[in-house]
Amino acid sequence: MTFILLTCILKNDHSGKFSSKGKTPWISLNGKPVADSQLAIEFLKTTFNLGPDLHLSKEQKAIGQAFLKLTEENLYW
User: What are the backbone angles phi and psi of residue 48, rounded to the nearest 5°?
Assistant: First the structure.
């Protein structure tokens, strides 16, 4: 969700529908559904050549990816 808000490329649909995988959030672009948030972000980044991290070096991106995985997989609130 934050990626979409930062890039201002899509609109929200609050209809409550789930993807074919039974997940939310998900996107559909030109009839192509992408049913996982991380896959959707990568799909949008490559399709539109955009993202808040385009100015970062490879090392900075690697550090960011490490922190992302740390927070997603190992930290519990």
Answer: -105, 5
Q: How far apart are CA 72 and CA 1, in angstroms?
A: 15
| pTM of the entire predicted model | 0.54
DSSP string, 27-76: EEETTEEE-SHHHHHHHHHHHHT--TTTTS-HHHHHHHHHHHHHHHHT--
Determine phi and psi for 53, rounding to 5 degrees.
-110, 15
- DSSP secondary structure, 5-16, as one string: HHHT------S-
Please give the Cα distance from 61 to 53 (Å, whole number): 7
Q: pLDDT, tens digit, for every residue of 39-53?
A: 888 888 888 888 778
Could you give the CA distance from residue 28 to residue 3 in angstroms, rounded to a whole number? 15
